[in-house]
Amino acid sequence: MASETILTVAALAALYNVVVFCIYAFDKISAREGGWRVRESTLIFLAVRGGGTGAFLCQRLLRHKTRKPPFRLLLPCLFVLQSAVALILLLAPQQVLSAAEHLIKLMPSH
What we know:
Number of domains: 1
Structural class: mainly alpha
Radius of gyration: 17 Å
């Protein structure tokens, strides 16, 4: 994988996490002011789909969703998991691609 592609993917992931952080922050402000809220299922969906870092940072910095059961455990776990995946992809992209190609070859064709 070309280094430009890796940097592009990393930049897109960072941007997505900034957006997720902002959505969580919006929800926190709305909670304080009694305004329109973002559904919890939407917040979880955004975190699971790659925004775990942004969600976790907002949780820690703005003290948002710290007592809600699904968020208390889920966001730290997603942060660790997604950070580990990102680190592996950044440090060993060729090995990851080779492993993925190998797994694809092992899959039965229909």
